[in-house]
Design a protein that fits this description.
Elements: H1 10-22, H2 24-32, E1 43-48, E2 53-58, E3 61-62, H3 64-68, H4 73-76, E4 80-85, E5 94-97, H5 98-114, E6 122-126, H6 131-143, E7 146-149, H7 156-166, E8 170-174, E9 177-179, E10 182-184, H8 186-193, E11 202-206, E12 220-222, H9 223-233, E13 245-246, E14 250-256, E15 264-269, H10 270-284, E16 292-295, H11 302-314, E17 318-322, H12 333-341, E18 345-348, H13 350-357, E19 374-378, H14 384-394, E20 401-404, E21 438-441, E22 457-463, E23 473-474, H15 478-486, E24 493-501, E25 507-512, E26 516-519, E27 522-525, H16 526-534, E28 539-549, E29 553-562, H17 569-583, E30 592-595, H18 609-616, H19 633-640
Parallel strand pairs: 4-17, 6-7, 6-8, 8-11, 11-12, 16-17, 16-18, 18-19, 19-20, 29-30
Antiparallel strand pairs: 1-2, 3-13, 4-5, 9-10, 14-15, 15-23, 21-22, 22-24, 24-25, 26-27, 28-29
Helix pairs in contact: 1-2, 5-6, 5-9, 7-8, 10-11, 13-14
The chain binds adenosine-5'-monophosphate-propyl ester.
Length: 643
């Protein structure tokens, strides 16, 4: 596999960037020519941000799995596509070659068809990080079913909401999943999610932990039995034809939090997403054929979709998939994996780096990390301390670090240095990728043209033009997509992030400017957590803000008014945490709950979060003007009770 569009020098980057802005159609035509199309596109790009309507490669026909699998068979058939490392370091590695992956995907695609799934149907996937998860995702794409992967940290109730929103008729799950020292009963959570649901017709269950599970006749089937039917009755050559998809047919839905209480289903389509994940993978990480790429994300998040599966596989790369967690059975797990598989590229999150830093250098000692060539960071701003540690102790000061800024809605990396090609700079995402046109605006949507005291342009980060991997809609509610991303500022896509820019055009992301928290690199809407807290029987009202957390980046701080305590304060606190865990999932549990008698509100009843944020951050003397509050005295009470 060669990548003629790989940018190998800063001059090549600058030239590509210029062309991508001046003549996007011919720029993307040249890149898209490198893929396998059943029919070429009629028009590279149609767009307006008003509706919004965004179409890339309209009229083109393809199947993304033919690009991720079939086209590699001849040259890479016996090469590893996925190297799977179990949660249990003693369990044997599973090396899935391109040939095997192709075969399994085709077989499982047939299983889906046998179970009545067809093009356009939505399939929810709730599995641990095992190769079968990759087969399931790709098999959906193979037959044109729209996959929606749900991260294992979401509760039955969250799954039920997603099932209702997608109107899914099929779920693919496992009996259970291993994660560190825990066994997670996935099927049992699905069973709870299915109470009252009468749309789901099939649940396909893969055996991983063999814990007892309920299996309902007519609805629940074992993965292994279904696969046997396929392999027994059909020769491999007899099936596997990929559905021919339109460039703009939806590929998947992935839910993400926003400022409102309800997660939204971000929709990505086929061709643009494929080109974008491939282009950004090959360029940001400077992937070279034969290298081993290890992205530590979970496939339940966009990073796993784009940089464990679609990006690397479309590039014929070898992708490591890890079932476990970085600290189990000890904090040397990532380094063992790097050593064992001679990983070239390691892509992880600042929260993981900070957590591993806390274990000191012992877990790294005696690990051979010399295979590493490129390090990546994603999910939140990487603080200088974590950057320096990563650079010094993992990269041994010889590996470029790419700080990749992007979002679920973006499909792939938008702003990042290119490893070894454009300069890296601690805590700066640096330059936009070709095709990406950022602009910083003030509250009125006017481009910021004046520098601040520190010499930076500072504003809300927007995009002026579409790139192939951007979201097309939010599932079932296009208006929500418009109001969330395209209505804040005229003719701009608004990211929800704030940023700084220097004279050379480098960007530094400063964080969310809306009511979304970035906790351990995961997006959690404060409104969503508040809704969950308010469901607790004794809760009258609550307000949630973020506060700096040494490992998670931000922790969740909840101010809660209750009618009384059941037992004592601590028990009630635990009950509230349990409620949030039930309603959203363990990932949204508040770190601190402070009981208060009132919340700082304006006369019009709006909660002044700025004040609550300052108190949670410990900046008690910086709460600012409280004179516009209905009852300024509540602030003193809250300050006194600060946790
Ligand atoms: O605030 C930004 C932050 O994560 C948000 C996107 O979250 P999500 O859709 O869950 O996707 C995470 C993985 C792509 C952004 O709005 N973010 C992501 N990467 C960075 C970042 N903030 C600073 N630097 C980054 N490299």
């Amino acid at each position: 596999m060669s990548y003629p569009y790989q940018l190998k020098s800063i001059e090549a980057y600058r030239a590509a960037y210029k062309k991508s802005v001046e003549d996007p159609e011919s720029f993307w035509t040249e890149i898209a020519e490198n893929f396998k199309w059943r029919k070429k596109w009629d028009k590279v790009l149609n767009w307006n941000f008003k509706e919004p309507r965004i179409e890339w490669f309209a009229g083109g026909k393809l199947n993304i799995t033919e690009n991720c699998l079939d086209r590699h068979l001849e040259t890479l058939g016996d090469k590893p596509a996925i190297i799977w490392e179990s949660n249990d370091p003693e369990e044997r590695t599973r090396v899935v070659t391109y040939e095997r992956l192709h075969k399994r995907v085709c077989q499982f695609a047939q299983v889906l068809k046998n179970n009545g799934i067809k093009k356009g149907d939505r399939v929810c996937i709730y599995m641990g990080m095992i190769p079968e998860l990759a087969y399931a995702v790709l098999a959906c794409a193979r037959i044109g079913a729209i996959h929606s992967v749900i991260f294992g940290g979401f509760s039955a109730r969250s799954i039920a909401d997603r099932l209702e929103d997608t109107k899914a008729e099929c779920i693919i799950t496992c009996d259970g999943a291993y994660r560190g020292g825990k066994d997670i009963p996935l099927k049992s959570v699905i069973d709870d999610a299915l109470v009252g649901n009468n749309l789901v017709k099939k649940v396909i269950v893969y055996t991983r932990t063999r814990i007892p599970v309920s299996m309902i006749k007519g609805r629940d089937v074992w993965w292994e039995d279904e696969m046997l039917k396929v392999t027994d009755t059909l020769p491999v050559e007899g099936f596997g034809d990929a559905e021919v998809m339109d460039a703009e047919d939806p590929l998947f839905i992935l839910y993400t939090s926003g400022s409102t209480g309800k997660p939204k289903g971000v929709v990505h389509t086929t061709a643009g997403y494929m080109v974008w994940t491939n282009y950004t993978f090959v360029n940001t990480f400077q992937y070279q054929p034969g290298q081993v790429h290890f992205c530590t994300a979970d496939i339940g998040w966009i990073t796993g979709h784009s940089y464990i599966l679609y990006g690397p596989l479309s590039a014929g790369a070898t992708s490591v998939m890890f079932e476990g967690i970085p600290t189990w059975p000890d904090a040397g797990r990532f380094w063992d994996i790097v050593d064992k598989y001679k990983v070239d590229i390691l892509y992880t999150a600042p929260t993981a780096i900070r957590s591993l830093m806390g274990y000191g250098l012992d877990p790294i000692k005696d690990k051979d990390l010399s295979s590493l060539k490129v390090l990546g960071s994603v999910g939140e701003p990487i603080n200088e301390e974590a950057w320096n540690w990563y650079n010094e102790h993992i990269g041994k000061k010889r590996c470029p670090i790419v700080d990749t800024w992007w979002q679920t809605e973006n499909g792939g990396i938008l702003i990042s240095n290119l490893a070894g090609v454009t300069p890296s700079r601690p805590s700066w995402a640096t330059l936009p990728l070709p095709g990406v046109q950022p602009v910083l605006v003030d509250e009125n949507g006017k481009e910021v043209t004046e520098k601040d005291e520190e010499g930076f342009y500072k504003g809300n980060l927007c995009m002026k033009a579409p790139w192939p991997g951007m979201l097309r809609t939010t599932y079932g509610d296009h208006e929500r997509c418009r109001t969330t991303y395209f209505a804040t500022y005229d003719n701009l896509y608004f990211t929800g992030d704030g940023a700084l820019k220097d004279e050379e055009g480098n960007y530094r992301i400063t964080g969310r400017v809306d009511d979304v928290l970035n906790v351990s690199g995961h997006r959690i809407g404060t409104a969503e957590v508040e809704n969950a807290i308010n469901m607790h029987a004794s809760v009258v009202e609550s307000a949630v803000v973020g506060y700096p957390h040494p490992i998670k980046g931000l922790g969740i701080y909840a101010y809660v008014i209750v009618t009384g305590f059941h037992g004592d304060e601590e028990r009630t606190r635990q009950d509230i945490v349990q409620t949030v865990s039930r309603i959203i999932g363990p990932i949204a549990k508040p770190d601190k709950i402070q009981f208060v008698t009132g919340l700082p509100k304006t006369r019009s009843g709006k909660i002044m979060r700025r004040i609550l944020r300052k108190i949670a951050e410990g900046e008690l003397d910086k709460v600012g003007d409280t004179s516009t509050l209905l009852d300024p005295a509540v602030v003193d009470g809250i300050k006194e009770g600060k946790l």
